[in-house]
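Complex record, two chains
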Amino acid sequence: MSKLNTETVSSESPLHYFSKISSHPVSSSQLFNGDLEFGVVAKEISLGCQLNLRGDVSDEQFVTGAAAVLGVALPTVPGTYQYNSDTVVYWLGPDEWLVTSATDAIDLESSLRLKIRGHIAVVDVSGGQTLVNLRGHGVPVLLKKASGYDFSSWSGALPGAGRCVQTTFAKATAIVANRADGSFDLIIRRSFSDYIAQWLLDAGQEVGCRIESC
Amino acid sequence: MRQLNRLPTAGRTDQNKVLNFTFNGKGYQGVAGDTLASALLANGVDVVGRSFKYARPRGIFGHGPEEPNAIIQLGSGAATIPNLKATQVELYEGLEAASVNGWPSVNFDLMGLIGAFGRLMPPGFYYKTFMYPKKLWMTYEHFIRKAAGLGSSPTERDPNSYEKLNQHCDVLVVGAGPAGLVAAREAARTGARVIIADEQSEFGGSLLASTQLIDGVPATQWVAEITNELGEFKNVQRLPRSTVFGYYDHNFLAILERVTDHLGISSASGPRQCMHRVRAAQVVLATGAFERPLVFAHNDIPGVMLASSVSTYVNRFGVAPGSRLVVATTNDNAYQTAIDWHHAGRSVVSVVDSRTGPSGDLVEQVRALGIQILEGHGLIEAVGGKRVRKALVAPINPEGSKVTGPVKSLACDLIASSGGWSAAIHLSSHTGAKPVWDETIVSFRPGESKQKERSAGACRGTFGSLEGLREGASAGAEAAKLAGFGSGEVQFPTPVIDQIIEQPQQALFLVPHNKATSRAPSQFVDFQLDVSAAGIELAVREGFESVEHVKRYTALGFGTDQGKLGNINGMAILANALGQGIAETGTTIFRPSYTPTTFGAIAGRDINELFDPERYTAMHRWHVENGAEFENVGQWKRPWYFPESNETMQQAVDREGLAIRNGVGILDATTLGKIDIQGPDAAEFITRMYTNSYLKLAPGKCRYGVMLKEDGMIFDDGVCACLSENHYLMFTTTGGAAGVLSWLELWQQTEWPELKVYFTSVTDHWATATVTGPNARKVIAKVCQDIDLASESFGFMDWRDGTVAGVTARVFRISFTGELSYEVNVPAHYGRHVWEQLIEAGAEFNITPYGTETMHVLRAEKGFIIVGQDTDGSMTPADMNMNWVVGKNKAFSFIGKRSLERSDSIRENRKQLVGLKTLEPSAVLPEGAQIVDDPNQPIPMAMQGHVTSSYYSASLDHSIALAVVKGGLNRMGDIVYCPAADGSSIAAEIVSSVFYDPAGERQHV
């Protein structure tokens, strides 16, 4: 299969149409106004690829093989993630992980298949979801509006320890993860991303919410 | 207007800040810190409403959520709220309020004429009178609701916003009275996350009206200090103006915070109210107690109030609601009201005590003030019209059951009554804990805890101040410990407070009258719903024994106050009438909401476009830009049809359909569910789920299958493709995607864990454009060079990897139109790019975008079913004439197989899928229409089946329909009828369900 020619092929991220859209208590304009302060900044981040990985942790060659290819150990503690500079592995279930990586999806998938024998599943889901980083002083309250999960329970985690959870977000779902800089990442499904963006603008309006798409 | 009842002492109000407001259209002034009730009392407004049934004039009776009479409609227009209690509405500049009940005015009420005939309206009146004839109930109901004064809902959009917050804490303290405050402080000190919520505008609870000293300072100062102390803890969230209105399973509690209500209706910014949905590890309930009024004749005349309410208006609000007071009591506690009134400089006519020889600390203080005490007396009747003029008192026997001497009259304009205190066990009761009657305190206590909660202070039946403080502190420390914080030991010293020695109270609920209850003037138990003692006794005489039946028959406790004042008196009167104790009579179960809650707060921001998520495909904007009309399919917005200029829907669908049959069309098929299936046992697993076999499906091939539930009934269908060895892609219906994935996981995890197979949803990953029609190949050929499109190498039901418009794609030759079709799947980021490239490539063939309606028409022409439209969960494959899809020789069974052999599944005369062709070609049958053999048969007609899908087919120039008809497959050529509501009927011939290209040649080219 041929690789993409980015000069002739245009792509649209899930939040493509929300580039520079904002809501603010003192501005009725939805267009981004750089002079205003925003309590919530939602920035969509372009990722190389997202792969869903399934396998059996009691199978040692799966665990070691995955770690060798990904450069990151598979997290086995529920609600945690492991990461290095260009790869993050989120725990989604006892036999399921989400890998985000700067590597090309096809290359990463074939490396995994090459390295690991036996029963696994590797699925490219890059087109189906997107990562949105939420930063700003309004984020903790925004998360309380969005989800019944107790995100403040993460404040006791060791510094740098990655915590993540798959949970409800407003009336959709999201994977929510903390970051070392105190911000939060949301990984949301593409088909729900317009709804979630609208919801963020509405729920973040009292402190000002700006969306930046990638 | 002068506030004639305003005292020089301000209490908790700021008399320098005057606020203007209107009540029932008339202008008044109050001061900052007032409630609407205290401001009305300050202005000498006696009548604030009319009673439910008899339309008797009613005045303010209480000072909090127990208020039964001052039920008001706040504001007007879009932001109006009905059914608020004036005692809970904080006064603000420009407030407008009106009585909910009482038309045309509270002072002259037409309904009052009915009141004059009160004896004609016994309990059960509505049941007895309005039951027959049944068809008039709607008329009666309208009349009753209007007369009952249940307030009016706004008819316009609510201009305010509402918020919802999910909260988590280690200890939730409900109530910021003395017990709650010390509980919160103990818990806070351990480092536990604490939320303390109180429904009043400021913390302090009963202490806000107290004249006691705590730790040597006035109670209100002590409250301010401890409240500030709590504010210094980072782990404490203080929520004033916040009512905990419901206690649900798993220590989940709901709090309604009135964020800006007190600032005025439309002037405030920010949400009007916020609902906190709290998950608490441990809960301390410190909700206090309600004073119980005495039940005596005409105890509902304006000017009769709770003793504690009189004290509260005097001490907290600086308002004296009258001048000459009579206190009627069964306990020491109410003597405080006489003391407070005396110190306010007003006259206490007498304290009427049902007990003989009272001598507690407060009693002695009253004696020392030279106030007359009538011991062994009952206040048997209030006299007056729109205001009390005098009280009738008489000596009563020690049991409090009869009048034993001459009746004396005391001139007065205010009666304060106290029959003791009832613990506010409401939240404890929400948890399912069964309240326990305690004779010694004459109150229910909270029952054995069903959740991680404990009660402290007055709500536990501990009415003494010092004991309440001790209990609160212990409860706070214990709750924190059980949540994992602290040692459970109380850390702070117990506050110093004077002990007041009180003597036992008398358990007296109904004050006797010199006439029998049935003959005496009405002795009201439930003010809001006009339930009297005589009414309860009548219910017993009519044979009601269960408290639950009596409550429903008389409506006791059914008002918006939930019987906070009347329930216990009512039960006691019932117990007495039944000749048994209160404990045997039963209890009263309180349910959420504690006080009425607005729908706005429950809905929060989940309104309008955020009410339900709208799911969009990657091509959605193109559809919008190109004028598509949309249809909801599950949560997806799918293009329904693409009208051009002034086309009607039928014209657009005709044009789109003909374009596909004669040229080429393009459909956004992204929404179909897609599940990636991998593993060595994938084929075996899939074969067990579908009715047909996938064991021999080769890579590059696709197969259509149906799935059954265990009962043998179709629940989903779709195509499954073999991507490579041990790797499959399953397509589901748009609406069934999530259900099918759960179904696969359920069977794999619970029934066949030995099968090695993994499932992953890829619905969102792929964008799908279906190019269909005789010219489809020519269009694809222009944008795809690396797939051999010749039919001999890429045939019907094959799929190929390739590059379409520069993007890596999977192309499937599956068809829902019956025409040559290519379903082009690309990662969704490229969805719009590929879609536009296909449109461009198809321009020379006049490629026509089409929506779900044309898709439905074309598939119906082919007789392809839609699960959920042509099936309804009671259809087998055989019913759908689809036995060809059922594998008869599969080695392993498949889900639903055994049910296909049930006697009912194989009986003759099941409804079977057939086509219907109307005799009149342009007459389109209504979907859902019943099918009969003889439209002239008298009702009830024999139903033969119903129409499941019906359209006008432009390709056939004829109306077509799919239907399920009893034994239909053996009835080809029969004429049947679909009767319409107007008496007409449409005749149709039963034909094959395949109308177009029955040999299926067009999709194979």
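Note: Chain A has a mean pLDDT of 92.
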